[in-house]
Structure formats: C-alpha cells, structure tokens
Write a structure and sequence with these properties.
Blueprint (H helix, E strand, L loop, with lengths): L4 H29 L2 H27 L13 H31 L7 H28 L2 H28 L5 H28 L7 H8 L7 E10 L2 E10 L5 H16 L4 E10 L6 H15 L2 E10 L2 E10 L5 H18 L3 E10 L12 H17 L4 E11 L2 E10 L5 H18 L3 E10 L3
Parallel strand pairs: 2-3, 5-6, 8-9
Antiparallel strand pairs: 1-2, 4-5, 7-8
C-alpha cells in the first residue's frame, strides 16, 4: 500500500498547534497559581506538542525512497521516533514524580481559583478532542507514530479529570491532594510510554509480523509449488518484507519455474501490509537426484575434515534415510570422533531438510578410497539369484527386482526392492526387510552392506 506521508505530516502539524493552545492555558495558569498537578498536566501537553515536531521530522526522513545504504527504505525512522517519544514520556513521568514527592515533604499549598478550573476544562477538552481525531487518522493512515502520539494525547482526558478532582480537594482544605494527583499523572504517562515501547520494539528487532503458517497457506495453494522452506518476514505491520525458498519440479523450464515464482510473489503481495516479496527458486529433490545429494554430502564432509567412504539412501514411505560410512582421523579419541560426526549429521540435515534420518558408521580414514569395482556378469547373476531366493524364502515378500550390486575394496554392496502387502504396518514391513537382509547375508559371502526397500503391491 502506498503510504500517505503528506497526510501523516499534515495531521502532526495540526495536532502540534492544538496542543500548544492547550499547553498555554494549563501551564500558564498552573505557574501563576502554583498548582503542581496543573503544571504536570501542562507539561504533559507540552511534550505532546514537541512529539508532534519530532514526528514531522521522522516522517520526512521515513518517506525517502530506498537507496544503496537503505535498500528496504527509511520506514523505521518513524518507528525510532515513536521510541524517542516514549523516552520523553519516561523523563516527564520521573520529573513529575520527584516534584510531587518534594511537595509532600515541603507541605506547601497551591492557590485554587476559577481560572484554574477554566484552564483545566478548556485545555483538557481541546487536547482530548485532538487525541481522538489524531488516533482515527493514525489508524486510517496505518502510522505507528500517529497512533503512539494520539494515545498519549487521549490520556489527557483522564489526567485532566484527575487534576480537577485534586484541585477541588485542595480548595476544600486538603493540600496533599495536589502532589498526590501529580503522582497519578506521572504513573499514567509512564504507562503510555511502556505501551509505546512494546508496540514498536518488535519492528526494530525484526520480529516476524506474519506467521509462517499465514504465508504457507498462501504459497501451498499455488499450482506447481512442490514444497517450500526458510519462510521469513520482517518490518512493520504496514511495510512487510517476505522471503522464502520455493521448490518446483526440476524438469520444468526456466520460464515455467519463474512463472510459478511470479504467482507466489503476486499472491503474497495481496496480503495486507506486504510490499516486498523475494522468492528463491530451487529444484525439488527426489530419488532421481541422489547423485546431487551425494555431492552435497561429500562437500559437507570435506568441510568438516572427514572422509566419506560409503553413501546410501533408503526411501521408505516418502521419508529419506541416509546411511554413511565416515572415515575420521585415527588419532582422535572416540568422544572426539563422535562429536565430529554429530556435527556432520547436523549440517547435513540443515542443508538437506528432506533427509529424515542419518545413520553413520565411524571408520578410520584411509589414504585412498578405491573406485567402485565392476562385478563380473557371472558373479552378478549368482548374487541376483541369491537375492531372488532370499525374497521367496521370507513369507509375505515377492518379486525381488531393481537389484543393484557393486564391489568396493573386496566387499559387496547389495540393494534390492521387493513387494509386500500395503496393509502391513511400517514395523511389520521393517521386520520383513530385516529377515530378507539376513537371508541374503547368509547366502552371499563378503557382504559389506545390504539395503532392502519394500513397496506395496500394485504400485
């Protein structure tokens, strides 16, 4: 939404002149009669006027367009100004409180006359109406500084009423009522300051103005989005910046993928307050991108100072389980080696969130990792038949297929798929795959690793 900076500035200028009219009446008569509560009310109104001046300066700075040093614009200058107003409120509250305590100790008695009452009623009415008008304008213009300033101004209605009661009590012969009301006014001012800080600090510390669920509900409805992650938002309620990573089918053309990103961006910009959206496109990883995942894990292992001996993926019910043989420095203690591999696993899952689980086997790093050796045709056929026989031996399993065999450093690594009743539980299916693995190990010597993936019949 295009911000109406001119409207915000005009509202602040009008509020300033109205506050100065109320200040002149309250503060002038308060100083003349010595009524501390009336002086407190006048100072409160004076700070409202000064806050209007600060607000005008902040709005002019905040309305500047983005530049090289402020790529997100200057919007937070307005938020900073609201915090500065709160600071002024705290200082005012402190000065009033210390003055009231001093009046209690001195026991001096102010003068109360018809001018005190008239000044209070006139000034309170002007300031109260000004605050209500400013609050309505602030909400219409979605301006934190107008809303923050208006709330302080509106409290003048309650402050003036309390001061009036105090003056009546002083007139009736209770001089202690004047400093007591001044203390109450100080408490009200401090409360408004606390509310202003609590409303504006979240924007300064980049607390997310939109939940990831709100953003996700919009993105998930866009056709072509396979998944998304790293959803973030920042800024004020009327100037929100959103960025996220969206994954699409890797077979799409660049133009088609960009069209999906544009649609995500368009729908997010339709949300209230959102004026900047950054979409990072990624290819959706799947079983066909195993080579890419292997390369990613190898780079992570290199960065962690360990060697990746073996890398296996297992897909069960849509979840990816990763099996690693990790070589570490033989001079490390067991605790040090475990800590190093733990860091490796943590980094992998941070960069590859689709990996549900990682099983690492710690080994001594070798100087040279031999390339995968080719298995002879005759050996391949014998092992393939052994895998088929192992599947037939296990009840409820059938049709062993996709049998893969390779050899590294004289040890065989076997992977196979088999069919199973889809109504079985995951636990029951896992037990069956374990039985098949054990049967293969019993039939084939020199087996280093066996992985069995079970698929429901009919798929």
């Amino acid at each position: 939404m295009e911000r109406n900076f001119k409207g915000i500035e005009r509202t602040l200028i009008i509020s300033f002149f109205l506050n100065m009219v109320a200040t002149s009446a309250k503060l002038g008569v308060g100083l003349w009669t010595g009524a501390l509560s009336l002086i407190a009310d006048g100072l409160d109104t004076l700070f409202d006027g000064l806050a209007n001046v600060i607000g005008v300066i902040a709005v002019r700075m905040g309305s500047r367009p983005p530049d090289a040093n402020h790529p997100y614009g200057h919007r937070k200058f307005e938020t900073i100004a609201a915090i500065f107003i709160a600071t002024m409120l705290f200082i005012t509250a402190w000065e009033l409180a210390t003055g009231a305590i001093g009046r209690f100790i001195e026991g001096s008695e102010p003068v109360v006359n018809i001018w005190s009452v008239l000044a209070l009623v006139f000034g309170g009415t002007v300031q109260g109406l000004t605050g209500l008008w400013e609050l309505r304008r602030g909400r219409a213009l979605q301006s934190e500084i107008l809303v923050a300033d208006a709330r302080h101004t509106i409290t003048s209605l309650y402050v003036s009423a309390a001061v009036l009661v105090g003056l009546v009590l002083v007139y009736l012969g209770f001089p202690w009522a004047d400093p007591l009301v001044a203390l109450l006014v100080a408490g009200v001012i401090a409360k408004v300051g606390i509310e202003t800080v609590s409303e504006n600090v979240p924007a300064l510390v980049d607390r997310a103005p939109l939940t990831s669920e709100t953003i996700g509900s919009v993105v998930a409805d866009v056709e072509g989005v396979e998944s998304f992650h790293r959803v973030r938002s920042r800024g004020t309620l009327d100037s929100i910046a959103v960025d996220l990573h969206v994954r699409v089918d890797p077979r799409l053309s660049v133009n088609a993928a960009n069209a999906i990103a544009d649609e995500v961006r368009r729908r997010l910009l339709d949300l209230d307050g959102v004026d900047d959206v950054t979409v990072h496109l990624e290819a959706q990883r799947g079983p066909e991108s195993t080579a890419a995942m292997h390369q990613a894990v190898k780079l992570i292992a290199d960065a962690e100072g360990v060697t990746l001996h073996e890398f296996w993926l297992q897909h069960i019910d849509g979840n990816i389980g990763m099996h690693l043989h990790v070589g570490v420095d033989p001079n490390l203690t067991l605790a040090e080696a475990h800590a190093q591999v733990d860091r490796l696993e943590q980094t992998i899952q941070e960069r590859l969130p689709e990996v549900a689980s990682i099983y690492s086997h710690i080994e001594t790093a070798v100087v040279e990792i031999l390339p995968t050796a080719r298995v002879t045709q005759g050996l391949h056929e014998r092992i393939e038949q052994a895998v088929i026989d192992a599947a037939e031996e296990v009840p409820a399993l059938s049709y062993a297929h996709e049998i893969q065999i390779h050899q590294v450093e004289g040890r065989l690594f076997i992977a196979a798929e088999a069919l199973v009743d889809g109504n079985l539980s995951v636990s029951e299916a896992h037990d069956l795959s374990t039985q098949m693995q054990e049967s293969i190990r019993a039939r084939v010597p020199n087996v280093g690793e066996v992985l069995v993936h079970l698929e429901p019949k009919g798929e």
